[in-house]
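This is your field. Have a critical look at both lines of this record:
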Amino acid sequence: MSRSSELTYTPAWWVPGAHLQTLWGKFFRRAPVVETRMERWDTPDGDEVEIHRLDEPVNAGPDTPRLVVLHGLEGTIRSHYLQGILSQARARGWAADVLIFRGCGTRMNRTRRMYHSGETTDVDFVVRRLVAEHPAQALVAAGFSLGGNVLLKWFGEQGDALPAQLLAGAAVSVPYDLERGARHIERGFSHIYTRHFLRSLKRKAAVKLQQHPGAFDAESMRRSTTLFEFDDAVTAPLHGFAGAHDYYARSSSFHFLKDIQRPTLLLSSFDDPFLPPEVLDAVTVVARENRNLTVEFLSFGGHVGFVGGQWPRGERYYGEERVLDFLGHQVARVRAVRQLATHDSGR
């Protein structure tokens, strides 16, 4: 199904245009600082992942939801949208756990592999461990950009095999078609995002090559000037793909949307500089055939932007608020259904 949010989100007049909406959070936002505690969890393949944890209040009841959050390309716990959604969770009294992808934490991971847009084994591992530790707790998940692609792909891969405790998901500014997104981001002003990402990615790739000599061709990595070229030189060989085309084809969440079996919010804007709008049109068509998908594709908002508010000192971030509202509604809906079933069975 779909729902329009044009009446509930009005872009801030003082943050005009897709690029300023996209860049506002990184350069101008006074993001809240939410204190979390970090844990390192050993993974089944002999590596580790970082988890940043926001505990529920000491007086929280047993029905307090737990939120799992996945970040975007080269994100860290300091990313403005992570701090924003953690602040939203804290205000609601929820617990939250942020999975920091391999290579994005406070130290480089040990194994040859790192993270990529289609790598879902770590989120599967983390969610199932959380379920084992908190079997009675309702679980919901949110992913931003690359993390949204990972979340949707995992939802589709698992279908009905997702843990029963995982009730719903939300994905913001997802690059549903990775190849078309990688090509689109090279155009016009958007190429500044490529330069930013490549600086960070190449630094990490150089460290990975020191750890694992011969894992990929160093000269091809150094020569890469686009995300496609980097993925062809580094991401693909590190993770067993034949090349960038193969990586994009097998990892794009678009192909997994039809199999999602949990209520899931898809929130994006048509002016997202990371993705051509035609991709969102294609997603809308697919989503019409899956009643579990709620599509909110807005005219404006940039990439993980959605800055609103009448004045700069009263800014609001619609994406984070909407994600928590949607997920909270799904938790309440399931809770009401279960209570009704318990009441009926007791008659």
Observations:
- The longest strand covers residues 48-54.
- The longest helix spans residues 318-345.
- Residues 51 and 99 are 5 Å apart (CA to CA).
